[in-house]
Amino acid sequence: MKSDTPEKLTTAAAPFRHKQRIALVLQGGGALGAYQAGVFQAMHEHDLAPDWVVGTSIGAINAALIAGNKPADRVARLRQFWDGISHPDAIDMKAVLDPARRANTWLATVDAVTRGVKGFFSPRAFSLFSMGVAVPPDEASFYDTHELADTLRELVDFDYLHSAEGVRLTVNAVKVTSGQLVSFDSDKQPIEVDHIMASGALPPGFPPVRIAGELYWDGGLYSNTPLETVLSDRPSVDTLCFMVDLWNPIGPEPTTFDEVQTRQKDVMFASRSVRHIEAYRNMHRMQCLIRSLYDQLPERSKGAEGRKMLQEIGCSTTMHIVRIPYGGQDWHMAAKDINFSKGSIEWRWEQGYKDASRAIEQAGWMSAVDDAIGVVVHELQPTAIPTRATFA
């Protein structure tokens, strides 16, 4: 694969490519999702194509564009999607100062709210929903998303996704009537447009999607970062997992209404990965204890069923999690996830590419670890300093 990036990046990653599974976990975040596209471009250029893509909301859309296209077409399809839904700027965002850029993004956000986003969603002009009047459940939203369905049909090759060459795709959604999180997994069922739409159906903006008689909302209402889907997958195998975080749970004390709303969104949608990783670590320790106790049994007491159980729990496997966080401040705008300004989209994509390239160059997962360690988390710092690895 031709690449204009340094050779050392490819050689650092290459040994891993043929040994362990590579997973890509993408959370929800609206227009911030362009950052995920940049991360994938860096992975693609360094021969780190994922074997499994897991997504929620905008992460599900990006995941479908990746898994649902041949390797050579994936970056181009992502680019086509993000260029198509970006709002043209009245000014050159790179040639003006921050006040002008902020004003431009504010206008782009207002335009998205009032007129929608071409190829994505449009306002329900004559709907009584906003007035509190009952409407059919499938229309209970401020916006219509039929345009997104058309866009997905155009850009996602579902025949390829379901072929033997296709990449595993999992998208998460919440069942409206029970609040249950449901994973739609291409290893277990065909994934179609409706499954992707359901994962991104965030109320009250977007309508629920009906699948097999049940209504579904955005999976981010339950858990915005689908890392748990990867951690709970069985049987366990050695995995390199790239996790892209779009929301920052840590921030300053807010002093204005806009800052309060921004902090609220960051807290609501930020990753709960620390909790999930801690639970996985405890489970891994228990599995290792079970294996140790089994090994101490006399041979006559060991049977095929016991060996099968040990194989399934896989306590000898290690998961490397490379966490790549979006570092943009977006002027602490509460509506940053609705800012589809072309300049903002391009900047986020570029930042995702740079951050992922740095993570790949550092390649912390190539270091040897003890078999007893179940999870290694590689934290990418927001500035160009070495990655800090934390062991769980």
Approximate strand percentage: 5-15%
Distance linking N and C termini? 35 Å
Q: Which overall shape is indicated by the principal axes computed on the Cα atoms? A: globular
| Helical percentage | 25-40%
Radius of gyration: 22 Å
Structural class per helix/strand content? alpha/beta
**Strand and helix order:** HEHEHHHEEHHEEHEEHEHHHEHEE
Q: Give a count of the beta strands, DSSP E runs of length 2 or more.
A: 12
- Unreliable stretches, pLDDT < 50, 5 or more residues? 1-18, 384-392
Number of discrete helical segments: 13
Overall mean pLDDT stands at 88
Characterize the largest beta sheet: strand count, sense, and whether it forms a barrel. 10 strands, mixed
Structure description:
This protein is an alpha/beta fold and 392 residues long. It is 40% helix and 15% strand. The chain has helices at residues 7-17, 34-45, 58-67, 74-85, 98-115, 146-155, 158-161, 193-199, 227-231, 257-269, 273-295, 304-313, 342-362, and strands at 21-26, 52-55, 122-123, 143-144, 168-175, 181-185, 209-211, 214-218, 239-245, 319-325, 375-379, 388-391. Strands 1, 2, 5, 6, 7, 8, 9, 10, 11 and 12 form a ten-stranded mixed β-sheet that branches. Strands 3-4 form a two-stranded antiparallel ribbon. A hairpin with a 2-residue loop joins strand 7 (209-211) and strand 8.
Features:
two-stranded antiparallel sheet; alpha/beta; 13 helices; disordered N terminus; single chain; 40% helix
